[in-house]
Amino acid sequence: MLEKLKQEVYNANMSLPKLELVTFTWGNVSGIDREKGLFVIKPSGVAYEQLKPADMVVVNLDGEVVEGNLNPSSDTLTHAYLYRHFKNIGGITHTHSPWGVSFAAAKMDIPAVSTTHADTFYGDIPCVPALNEEQIRSAYEMNTGAVIVSEFERRGIDPDATPAALVSQHGPFSWGPTPEKSVYNAKVLEVSAEISYHALQSTRSDIHVPQYLLDKHYYRKHGANAYYGQSSAKSVDHTTHV
């Protein structure tokens, strides 16, 4: 079942240690088949060097196992909640990467202070509120997804334009159209967090990039007239040739 997607999710998970986004087993990636209403996720607590594509677990959008001999990630219900509410995403990554966790521990957004950030995230990466005792005791993992969705709705943030969040005192979640892209966004988040940390140590001024620079860098990669790379909307015809 979903063998191609299992391979994609396996490959995405295996990239986490290579990109230095996880320590031990502290992370997971999933990917969804929207037509079937099923997603594939890393099994819980299995070391990356022991993982195989066949170990990936197939679950439904209620977080129930459909196929697999191993327990799915303990974060499965968070992934399920995000898939149910953010309809365009195809993959989700969760890590405990140290720079991202530093901002989560401080309950701070990662501010958009550089074009490195603006190329991927259209504005600050929000740090959503910490869960209260009742939310943790009743349905911790599901409520983790719920606080992300609720905060995006409260702030009017487009989850496709800002494809990541920090959960206070926990860590980063990122997403994208594919499992691979969700990992890419997780790495950009971590780099942006490190850049922001060092920049904030250097000044007390507001160092957010101006809106026009944010617009330029985000939309040249993601807008209707994007021209970054080789296959964007105007990537061929934007260059002047002699």
In percent, how helical is the residue content?
40-55%
Q: What is the residue-mean pLDDT, rounded to a whole number?
A: 96
Please describe the biggest sheet, giving its number of strands, its sense, and whether it closes into a barrel.
Answer: 8 strands, mixed
Q: In percent terms, what proportion of residues is strand?
A: 5-15%
Find the count of extended strands (DSSP E, 2+ residues): 8
In short:
It is built from seven helices and eight strands, in the order αββββαβααβαββαα.
Walk me through the structure.
Its EC number is 5.1.3.4. It catalyses: L-ribulose 5-phosphate = D-xylulose 5-phosphate. GO terms for molecular function: aldehyde-lyase activity; L-ribulose-phosphate 4-epimerase activity; metal ion binding. Involved in the degradation of L-arabinose. Catalyzes the interconversion of L-ribulose 5-phosphate (LRu5P) and D-xylulose 5-phosphate (D-Xu5P) via a retroaldol/aldol mechanism (carbon-carbon bond cleavage analogous to a class II aldolase reaction). The chain is an alpha+beta fold. Helices cover 40% and strands 14% of the residues. It has helices at residues 3-18, 76-85, 98-105, 115-118, 133-155, 179-202, 211-222, and strands spanning 27-33, 38-41, 57-60, 65-67, 91-95, 127-128, 164-167, 171-176. An 8-stranded mixed sheet has the order 4-3-2-1-5-8-7-6, sandwiched between helices. A hairpin with a 3-residue loop joins strand 7 and strand 8. Helix 3 (98-105) packs across helix 6 (179-202). The longest helix has 24 residues, at 179-202. It is globular and about 55 Å long. The relative contact order is 0.15. The model has no long low-confidence stretch (mean pLDDT 96).
